[in-house]
Write a structure and sequence with these properties.
Layout: E1 6-15, E2 18-27, E3 32-38, E4 40-41, E5 48-52, E6 60-63
Antiparallel strand pairs: 1-2, 2-3, 4-5, 5-6
């Protein structure tokens, strides 16, 4: 579902022999607005979403009104 105008989606990424899924966010038109670079994400709520950049790294919140900073 769209939350705050964005939807979390994953994409398969192959690095050498390893395959993993990275998460990003698309808008209602299907355009990628936050790139596929997060190991884990939660849906937006009140303009913020929880993301973890890589497994083992600390998560943080991002804002849906400043995607150009990410």
């Amino acid at each position: 579902p769209l939350r705050c105008g964005l939807r979390a989606v994953s994409s398969m990424v192959q690095e050498n022999a390893n395959v993993r899924y990275l998460w990003g966010f698309i808008n209602e038109s299907g355009h990628v607005v936050l790139p596929f670079k997060y190991a884990e994400v939660k849906d937006f709520s009140d303009g913020y979403a929880w993301v973890r950049p890589e497994v083992g790294r600390s998560p943080f919140n991002i804002s849906n009104w400043m995607p150009f900073l990410l």
